[in-house]
Amino acid sequence: MGDNTQDQLLKDLKERARPCFQCGICTSSCPVFRVAPELNPRLSVDSIITRGVVPREGNEWLCAYCLMCDQRCPMGVSLAEILMEIKNISAREGKAPPDVIEAALSLMQDGCLSPISSRSEKIRTELGLPDLPKAEPADVLKLFKATGALEVLETNKAAQEEASE
Ligand code: SF4
Ligand code: SF4
């Protein structure tokens, strides 16, 4: 990604984070923070506002996108979206964590993240529930291509291979 695009993204993020007055309600409301304090939405926003940099530690990948922080922020800052954008920037730079890459590859290959087990199918039949639609990897591939996710995935795979050499 070009420097101009990166600068524009940072400018947009700063604008969205601007109302934050660092009260910390987002962090104290975050269920992930309670078990993994390295995810700290207040500090992620602080890094953008005061240092003018997108955090590079990668802790934002721990965000479960539960939106609790968004709902509780007294200033209406869309923290979950900001964290998502930080992850997007990091993924475009080939810095997505290995487990995320693995999940994306398996989604592309199987058409779903968690295939339906034969036990679940049996229980559904016993309960009289209809069959679930079959996963279609070809449809997922189309989406990956249309959204640019395939390109991002290739960037990350290449970065992983380079790191392991
Ligand atoms: S809750 Fe809102 S205002 Fe408070 S620190 Fe978090 S983003 Fe900033
Ligand atoms: S959206 Fe992410 S950062 Fe916000 S409360 Fe949920 S897990 Fe924490």
Q: Which hetero ligands occur in this complex?
A: iron/sulfur cluster
Tell me the count of domains. 2
Question: In total, how many beta strands?
Answer: 0
Order of helices and strands: HHHHHHHHHH
Mean pLDDT: 90
What's the CATH topology label of the largest domain?
Fumarate Reductase Iron-sulfur Protein, Chain B, domain 2
Into which percent range does the helicity of residues fall?
55-70%
Oligomer type = single chain
- Shape estimate: globular
CATH architecture of the largest domain: Orthogonal Bundle
What name goes with the CATH superfamily of the largest domain?
A: Alpha-helical ferredoxin
| Parts with pLDDT < 50 across at least 5 consecutive residues | none
Span of the ends, CA to CA: 24 Å
Kindly name the structural category: mainly alpha
Strand content: under 5%
Report the top-level CATH class of the largest domain: Mainly Alpha
Characterize the largest beta sheet: strand count, sense, and whether it forms a barrel: none
Gyration radius (Cα, Å) is 19 Å
Helical run tally? 10
General description of the model:
The protein has 165 residues and is mainly α. The chain has two domains: 90 residues, Alpha-helical ferredoxin (Fumarate Reductase Iron-sulfur Protein, Chain B, domain 2); 67 residues, no CATH class. It is 62% helix and 0% strand. The radius of gyration is 19 Å and the shape is globular. The relative contact order is 0.11. It binds iron/sulfur cluster (2 copies). One iron/sulfur cluster binds next to helix 5 and helix 6.
